[in-house]
Amino acid sequence: MRGDVLVESQEKAPYLFDAARHHATPIAVALPESSLDQRIALEIARDLKIPVITRGSGTSLSGQSVGEAMIIDTRRYLRSILQIDLDAMRVTVEPGLSLTALNTVLIPHGVWVAAEFPAGAEGTIGGMVGTNAVGRSALRYGDTASAVHAMDVVLADGTTARFGAFGDGGEMVLSNARLNQLIPQLFQIADGDRIASRASGIHRAMYRGGYNLAVFPSPQGQSGRSTSSMSGLVNFAQLLAGSEGTLATIQSVTLRLKQRPAHRAQVQLAFSGLDHLISQQAEIRALSPTAITFRDLDPRGRILVSVDFHEDDERSLQQRVHALEMLAADLGIVHVMSSGVAVSAIGSDQDVERPEICFDDCLVPTPSMMDVISQIDQIFVRHGVKGGWHGHAVAHGFYLRPVLSYTSVEPTRLQDIQAAIGTFVARFKREGYSRDLYSKIKAAFDPENRLNPGRIALPGG
C-alpha cells in the first residue's frame, strides 16, 4: 500500500480523541495515497479480521471517529476534485477534501456546494456525508443528503459499487453478484417494516442521523424526503448519508451544485430570553431567511440571534433586511448589527467563561425547545459545571448543540457529562425507527460487523 501507516504510540496520538474528547486507542492508522491504496488497506483489515473506521474531520462529536480499529484517514492524500460538470451542475470529489477547499474552486464559476459549517476549513466532504451534516444555512439549502447525487463505495466484503438513483431511468445498475443480493434485500426490509409509515410526519421531514431510510417510497409511491427528482427512484447513495461509515467506505462523492447568490447580509438581534425568541421565531421565518442561528449570550439569559439573507437581487436583499429591522422595532427586540455595522451595544460578555467543548447536536421540534434546554441545563447543574448551548433553525424545528467549558472539569467528570448528554440527545436523533430495523440494514451491508462497529446498530440486534 502506498501512503503512510502509523503503528507507534506517538504517531497514533492525534487519533486517540475526537473534538469532544471521546477516547479510544486505534490498532493502526492508514493514510492511503490513492483509491486503490484505500482498497488495499481495507483488504488488509479484512484479512487480519480487524474493524475499520474511516476518519474525516470537523463533523463528528459523538465518538464515531475513534475506536479500537484500523483508522483510515483520507485527509492527507484523498482530497482531489475528480470532475466539475457545470452543465449537469455536479462535482465529484474524494472524501478527504474539505468543503472550504472545494468551494474556493467552485465560487469563481458562480456555483457552490450550498452548506456552511462552523468547522469551516476543517470539515471534509466524507465527514459531512458520513454524519449527514446540517449546516447553519440548512433552513434554505437542506442537509448534506439532499446534495448527494451518487457515491463510489467499497462494501464490507471488498466489492466496489456506484450507488445512486435506482429504478426506471436511474443510473445505478446491479453490476455484480453482491449488489444483486443486497438491493432486493433492502427493498424487502423496507416493505416488511413499512418504513414510510414509521417515518411519517415530522420525523420524516426532520430526519438526520442514522440510516436514511426515508429514501424508500411511501405506500402511496412517493418518497417522504423528495430525495430524487424522478418519481419511483430510490437514491441508495442518500441511504448512506448519516451512516457514519458503518455500511460502506466512501471512495468518491458526486454532489449537486447550486448557483451562489450574489448578495448577502446579516442582521443580529438580542432577545431577552429563549421564550422571547421562540414566541417570535415564526415572524422571522416568514421573511424567508437563509439562516437563523442563536446562542446564549450571558448570565442574564439574553439570546444573540443572527439572521442571514442570500439573494441574487440586491434590492430584494435590502427589502428583506429592512423588513426584519422594522419587525425588530415593532416587537421590542434589540437590533444589534446589520451587515457588519453596529447599531447598538449589548454589553460585554468577557467575564463569561467561554465554552470550549461541543457535544453532538440534536434536532428539536419548536414546541419542545424550552423543555429540552431546561433538561440540558439541569444536566450541567447536576454535575456542577457551567454549560450553554447554541443552534440554528431548520424547516420544522431547531438543531441544538450543548456546549461546555471543560478546562476546569476533571476527565472523569467530563466522561460522565458526555454520557448524560449523549443519552439525552440520542432521543432526538433516530425517533420513528426501531433498533431492530437498523439492525437489519446493518446486517444486510456488514454482517460481520467490521465497519465502525458499535455505532448506530449491531447486525442481528
What is the fold's blueprint, element by element?
Elements: E1 3-6, H1 9-12, E2 28-32, H2 35-48, E3 52-55, E4 70-73, E5 81-85, E6 90-93, H3 99-106, E7 111-112, H4 125-131, H5 138-141, E8 148-154, E9 160-163, E10 165-166, H6 177-193, H7 195-198, H8 202-205, E11 234-235, H9 236-240, E12 249-256, E13 258-259, E14 263-271, H10 274-285, E15 291-296, E16 303-311, H11 314-331, E17 334-338, E18 341-342, E19 357-358, E20 362-365, H12 369-382, E21 387-394, E22 397-404, H13 411-426, H14 435-445
Parallel strand pairs: 2-4, 3-4
Antiparallel strand pairs: 1-2, 5-6, 6-12, 7-13, 8-9, 8-12, 10-11, 14-16, 14-17, 15-16, 15-21, 17-18, 19-22, 20-22, 21-22
Helix pairs in contact: 6-14
Summary of the model, kept short:
The protein is α+β, with helices and mostly antiparallel strands and 461 residues long.
Throw out a few tags for this protein.
Vanillyl-alcohol Oxidase, Chain A, domain 3, alpha+beta, 5-stranded antiparallel sheet, 22 strands, 9-stranded antiparallel sheet, 3 domains, Uridine Diphospho-n-acetylenolpyruvylglucosamine Reductase, domain 3, Uridine Diphospho-n-acetylenolpyruvylglucosamine Reductase, domain 2, single chain
Oligomer: single chain
CATH top-level class of the largest domain: Alpha Beta
- Briefly note the CATH topology name of the largest domain: Uridine Diphospho-n-acetylenolpyruvylglucosamine Reductase, domain 3
Name the poorly predicted regions.
199-207, 221-231, 344-355
Give the overall silhouette: globular
Biggest beta-sheet profile: 9 strands, antiparallel
> Helix proportion of residues, in percent?
25-40%
Beta-strand percentage range: 15-25%
Question: Average pLDDT across residues?
Answer: 83
Please give the number of β-strands: 22
Radius of gyration: 22 Å
- Give the name of the CATH architecture of the largest domain: 2-Layer Sandwich
Quickly give the structural class: alpha+beta
Termini gap = 35 Å
Please give the count of helices: 14
User: What is the number of domains?
Assistant: 3
